[in-house]
Amino acid sequence: MKHIITAVGALAMTTTLAQAGGVDRSGQSVASIFESGNYVEFSFGRVSPDVSGTSSANLGPFGGFSSGDMARGYNQIGMAVKTKLNDHWDLGVIFDQPFGAKVDYPSGTNYFAQGSTAELNASALTTVLKYRTDNNISIFGGLRYELMDAKASVPFVAGYVVDSDQSSGLGYLVGVAYEKPEIALRVALTYNSKISHDFNTVESSLLTGGFDVDGKTTVDSPQSVNLEFQSGVAKDTLVFGSVRWVDWSEFVIDPTNYPPADPLVFYNSDTVTYTLGVGRQFNENWSGSVAIAFEDQSGGFASNLGPHDGRTSITLGAAYTTANKLKISGGVSYIRIGDAKTTLDDVNAASDFTDNSAVGVGMRISYAF
User: Fold this and answer.
1) pLDDT tens-digit map of 258-272
2) CATH number of the domain where residue 108 is located
3) 289: containing domain
4) Total domains in the fold of the chain
5) Residue 118's CB: how many other CB atoms inside 10 A?
């Protein structure tokens, strides 16, 4: 019965699919490596954000206009396979989409950024090897192979357009965990390294006379640390949560011929996201969970291609387990996206984004054998 609660706890942490409407999407969890025996899972999610703002009055004739909904919905998929090699060794393979963005300012709004678009896609394949000692301490590590591509069109910045090829990069993860199965206790700490990508880019703007210019741009997907925990606290009841730090202050996209002095994409500070939830087993087949998450605002100006700062969310999850260990889980998240102001000159506010939100739904099918 304990395994049903554990499944719901893991689900609630992974169905919060919108990280402040930004580029952190999967959370890079390695929870599947802790499943008992052999295990396989497939997950699918859909996130629908609603993000809009209003240009500031200090822009004169360009002030007071609504941007319209500039954040597009996206799908999220994930897969994991884990096999027990012997009583001490486990091997897992995880596919996820760790980072991404999809920006599309509507045209015809008179908002200064109208017609601007941007897209970032990343997918990763991670191999994890775990060794469990006789005193319930585990150490694990592995390699992550990541693919990434990006493109943007920013008409209000000298008609700037950039497109990249798909770049691959290799990183690693290491971690340590402590488990006490009789009370469903597990605490796991995971470090994910940065991964460097060298893009071949094609850029054009009014400053290049409208001609395409070939170049190279280096982007590092950020390093991060995950602390994930769970524990039984009463009969058929589990408390779970996580703390995730991401080194966003080192994430920069700065193509060679982008006209302004500031990079195309950058963040003022790192982020820490907190999640806390409780799972409850109702009977031999059904379990449910609820979790809340919080990411504090960092302050300062946000990017016009990512006008958000912090988030608060609530996730409801349910899981059904059949007699043959097939588990079908589902969840829905409501995310309140933090208010933000953008700028065009690093001094004055150019827009104000408030009262924005997103809804995420997720489903996971898993089987233990």
Assistant:
1) 999 889 998 888 999
2) 2.40.160.60
3) 2-368
4) 1
5) 23
